[in-house]
Amino acid sequence: MKFTVSREDFLKPLQLVVGVVERRQTLPILSNVLINLNEGCLSLTGTDLEVEIVGHLSLDAPSEHGEITVPARKLMDICRSLPDSADITFTEEAGRVQVTSGRSRFTLSSLPANEFPSVDDGPGKCEFSIEQNGLKELIDHTAFAMAQQDVRYYLNGMLLEVGDGRVRAVATDGHRLAMMDQEVDGLSQELTQAILPRKGVIELSRLLSDDGEVSVVMGTNHIRIATAEFRFTSKLVDGAYPDYDRVLPKGGDKQMVGNREELRNAFSRTAILSNEKYRGVRLLLSDGLLTLVANNPEQEEAQEDVTVNYSSGDLEVGFNVSYIIDVLNVLRGSEAQFTLSDANSSALIEDPANSRAVYVVMPMRL
Q1: What value does the mean pLDDT of the chain take?
Q2: CB neighbourhood size of 240 (10 A)
Q3: Of 9, 264, 327, 329, which is most buried with the most CB atoms under 10 A?
């Protein structure tokens, strides 16, 4: 195997795949990236047995086909250290790989390519295409609500629900919920659900750009997302996602609308003196005014008044301030709307100008 490629061209697919390679591995070969060259098409593959990413690159220069695996992080560091305009030549000899550029020469160890594992993706049961920026928006507006290490393992991921003319992303950790829809032409009425694992969600968000479409194939145990530049395959979480529709508060009769930026800044300032463990902040609502109050065990207190559009009677309710700030950070409109019922009911938060995304935050007793 032998080929020459510019540093800039080679770094793009390498950066796509290296993120999925774990630094500490039980199998040594999982620390490697698989380099495959066939008929002028160079592909780089990284995997952790749960998520697999393949980056593609076309070569114009003459080359000798073959496949090898080399240490991913070392290869990345070598390429980054070379000058921007450098060309890199790869040569395989006797189970070792020589990387040459100008006056620099590196010899890397290699492991047999036939030992490199692949994520078995199997047949798909649902296929569709979606704009990359649309899918990225779904992930970026909901991923923050995923659980991190919950014993309810199905919460440590994101639900993708496809059908009825739209793709819906749902994430919850049991204390809050984020949901967003994206309309897609040509989808069947039948609903198909898949739970992406947390790492897959994070890697996919990193891969997606603002241009072009991606093709999505959802199977029973996997999801595959592909463009001309990469192919992403992830195993799915085997479990039943909770009925999120039951969590959405119904019949809230108290609506508060305020400037999103003003609210975010007020919550952020008040949070400074909240209890570091529970992060509770009290919301006191009266006509045209929201008062935020935070206390901590050191007997310190923060209080802030915000002018809002509200006229539904006095109400006092407590929330985890971090959850509220997370929602206000992802909303894109100039205003934020809170729909409430009473002190024991969840808050429904949304952008009044955009009904595609809704957020639910459960109350706290303070």
Answers
A1: 93
A2: 8
A3: 327
**In this structure, what are the phi and psi dihedrals at residue 289, rounded to the nearest 5 degrees?**
-140, 135
Q: Are 218 and 128 in contact (CB under 8 A)?
A: no
Supply 145's token pair.
């609500």
Looking only at the bridges linking them, the beta strands covering 41-47 and 104-109 are unpaired
Cα 284 from Cα 360, distance rounded (Å) = 19
Does residue 70 contact residue 108 with C-beta atoms inside 8 Å? yes
- 208 to 8, 132, 173, 339: CA distances (angstroms): 19, 6, 24, 33
Residue 136 to residue 158: CA distance in whole angstroms = 13
In angstroms, the Cα distances linking 148 to 47, 175, 245, 323 are 21, 13, 22, 14
pLDDT at 214: 95
Residue 32: what pLDDT? Answer: 95
- Does 69 or 25 have the greater pLDDT score? 69
For range 54-59, the mean pLDDT = 93
DSSP 3-state of 138: helix
Q: How far is CA 323 from CA 98, 125, 173, 319, 363, in A?
A: 51, 36, 11, 8, 10
In contact, 249 and 345? CB cutoff 8 Å:
yes
- pLDDT value at position 198? 95
> pTM (2 decimals)?
0.91
What domains sit in the chain, N to C, each tagged with a CATH number? 2-115 (3.10.150.10), 124-246 (3.10.150.10), 254-361 (3.10.150.10)
pLDDT tens-place string over residues 189-230: 789 999 999 999 999 999 999 889 999 999 999 999 999 899
In angstroms, rounded to a whole number, what is the distance separating the alpha carbons of residues 364 and 319? 5
Q: CA-based diameter of the chain, in Å?
A: 80
Angle of the 321-330 helix axis to the 260-271 helix axis, nearest 10: 150
- The answer to whether 320 touches 349, Cβ cutoff 8 Å, is no
Residue with tokens 């040509």: 186
Q: How confident is the model at residue 185 (pLDDT cuts 50, 70, 90)?
A: confident
